[in-house]
Specification:
Order of helices and strands: HHHEEEHEHEHEHEHEHEHHEH
Strand content: 5-15%
Oligomer: single chain
Shape: elongated
Helix content: 40-55%
Low-confidence stretches: none
Largest sheet: 8 strands, parallel
Number of strands: 10
Bound molecules: manganese (II) ion
Length: about 350
Amino acid sequence: MSLNELESLRGKVDELNLEILRLINERAEVVQEIGKVKEKQGVNRYDPLRERHMLNLLKDFNHGPVPQSTVEHIFKEIFKTALEQQEEDQRKALLVSRKKKKEDTVVEVNGEKIGQDIPTFIFGPCAVESYEQVSTVAKAVAAKGQKLIRGGAYKPRTSPYDFQGLGLEGLKILSRAAKENGLAVVSEIVTPGHLEEALDYVDVIQIGARNMQNFELLKAAGSVRKPVLLKRGLAATIDEFINAAEYIISQGNDQIMLCERGIRTYERATRNTLDISAVPILKQETHLPVFVDVTHSTGRRDLLLPTAKAAIAVGADGVMAEVHPDPAVALSDAQQQMNLEQFDEFYSELQKFMKSHAILV
Ligand SMILES: [Mn+2]
């Protein structure tokens, strides 16, 4: 074979490559069109029967020399790319997506602008147990100039025999203590049925980890005009978490805050594994404020401060932590709540950290 011949064959291969490239892209455009039609009809994007049909057609017309298994392998990759492209387009279309709205969403509660400039803190006991208990904590929170208090009245617990919370009575107690101290209430609602009665006493509706995919509850929270704090599920992927937020916003309520609270892994040194990288990912993917709950992610008092620092350093808009006047006798999460002294220490250390890093001036 002469050198000229080789050059000319290589030239042909180059041309064919470009032709294949052009065809792959042309195919992708047609698939995108199909995606739009399917979206309008509300049908599933992946259709295994259709894929089988396409593979059969290729088999009928493949006369070699490329073996059929290789042809299938190559075309399956092409099919997959097109499907991924469709999914990417779908993600861009989400209302919570940063691509849909570039600017940060700022949620205003009790004069606190959450998601803007300085981090927001949400402190309070795991559960509302008595007026004295929440009132003591409310005073400590207000003394620090903070604007929000948390406390569970409806407690979804692992065991049905564990303390289930004081219910509406608990919300009334929390609301009273909060008002007396100029604080807004963050409290979990577990069923759409409780939402209406709770609205008089709650300023931020919390949807807990165990209810992250309670779609009826998400839709109900989306149809009221109160901010929602949505916690990530125990074993939820970031994608599932984002879609849960989409359920809320799809009903018209865009006052949503996300909260990373640790995920379940094989690691037992902490109660859950704090997925710290979820914070910047959620900030990139969505326009919503992102919190880190250091209490439930670690389940360890000695890790509250370092993880809170990490949360702020990585760009979280706020931190949530549990405080109880006497954690040893708390009816839930006795292991990990801070007492008032520890709370003071935690708070002042965090302030120091933020000042030294010019987060607070
Ligand atoms: Mn708790």
